[in-house]
Amino acid sequence: MKSKAVATPTRTKEILETYGFSFKKSLGQNFLIDVNILKNIIDHAGIDSSAGAIEIGPGIGALTEQLAQSADKVVAFEIDQRLLPILEETLSDYDNVDIINQDILKADVQEVVKRHFKPGQPIRVVANLPYYITTPILMKLLMDRLPIDSITVMIQKEVADRMAAEPNTKSYGSLSIAVQYYTEARVAMNVPKTVFMPQPNVDSSVLHLEMRSAPPVQVKDEDFFFDLVKASFGQRRKTLMNNLARHFKGKMDKEELREKLDRVDIDPKRRGESLTMQEFAKLADCLY
Fold this sequence. Notes:
By secondary structure, this protein is an alpha/beta fold.
């Protein structure tokens, strides 16, 4: 007989009281207390009985429990030692969950994948991420080129919008390009503050990232490409020309820049947010 789901207000309060657990602001702890939201996240993630799941920050196991019911295997990284005995209790019904007490940013995730999942198994990252450290975690997962199929995460709405943004929108910037270079990004759903304990001060969204087998553009040098993109958004209100002139100061004068922009058919008066990833790639290769 399975015990009552962790993700309800009463059960969550009960667990916290039993263990005398207090939330650490520094760890961005906001626990989910709505089972339907969790089931929706798992649906958007495409978790089924063939999949392996990696979770980051399981908390008291609300999402972990639902993942354990749907996935073949779940591996969760938890940095807060105080939560280990709680997780041991709340997940005691499941023998397909391993908890790793480690900071995901310092973990060798490649090694974990090799050790815990079957060769060739579809692996999906699913997490309710601490908001203060969302971007570093996602960029690590993307840049480490892990053998994962997708990432589905609950994050701050504003950050989700930026990661999935299209050119010529307010949210579009260097982060949009960095994420979309590696993945196809979409905001799967918006989530009200009321489904968390304690309630965060910001609205949340579930972002789904499907890994690409190859980037949508081929560039001569990735680091140079990303540097150029970042520089182009340096000051949003400034033209591409002004931002790039600042960035290449001492290396290239405005005349040279103008000539290169001409060569790739980009008007120097445009702003960074109007360029597509393809245009950035052409410009990067021309300047490199």
